[in-house]
Design a protein that fits this description.
Strand content: 25-35%
Distance between the termini: 29 Å
CATH class of the largest domain: Mainly Beta
Radius of gyration: 21 Å
Largest sheet: 4 strands, mixed
CATH topology of the largest domain: OB fold (Dihydrolipoamide Acetyltransferase, E2P)
Number of strands: 8
Strand order of the largest sheet: 1-2-3-4
Low-confidence stretches: none
Number of helices: 3
Mean pLDDT: 76
Number of domains: 2
């Protein structure tokens, strides 16, 4: 089963905030200066944009990882869990036994989360983005060999 990897520096709810604010201000100005019909059309357009954003968020089927500005969200088997980069105590890189398939073990004070980047679309981009975030948040990084 192919897991999906989403690069999401912003959530899908905040991508269009500027457009929505402009539509809101435009609707107020249109109502005040031009006509209430134009204001209703602009408000309706903003509502449609919000509905489209909501549907895009619900269309994420299957397992996925979202790397946000301050955390990682794991969506697996209909369940979501997140790990804040500031909560990470240790990151272990290892080369797995089957064909040297690398994996990343993220340890927090409570849980461990294993990621195999090769299972995700854009695995190189996922690995690079995770490494950048681990470095930016000064996470302790350990390279280990499988079996030790």
């Amino acid at each position: 089963m192919l897991n999906k990897y989403y690069v999401a520096d912003k959530s899908h709810y905040t991508k269009n905030w500027l457009l929505l604010v402009l539509l809101f201000v435009g609707a107020i100005l249109a109502w005040w200066q031009i006509s209430s019909l134009l204001a209703a059309v602009l408000a309706g357009l903003g509502f449609i944009i919000m509905l489209v954003n909501e549907r895009r968020g619900k269309k994420k089927n299957g397992n996925s990882i979202e790397v946000l500005e301050k955390c990682i969200i794991f969506n697996e088997d209909g369940q979501s869990r997140s790990v804040a980069f500031s909560e990470i105590k240790k990151v272990k890189y290892s080369n797995g036994l089957p064909a040297g398939d690398p994996s990343i073990l993220i340890e927090t004070g409570i849980n461990k989360h294993k990621i195999q980047p090769s299972r995700y679309e854009n695995s190189d981009k996922l690995l690079q983005q995770l490494q950048n975030k681990f470095t930016a948040f000064n996470c302790k990084i350990v390279n280990k060999k499988e079996g030790s």
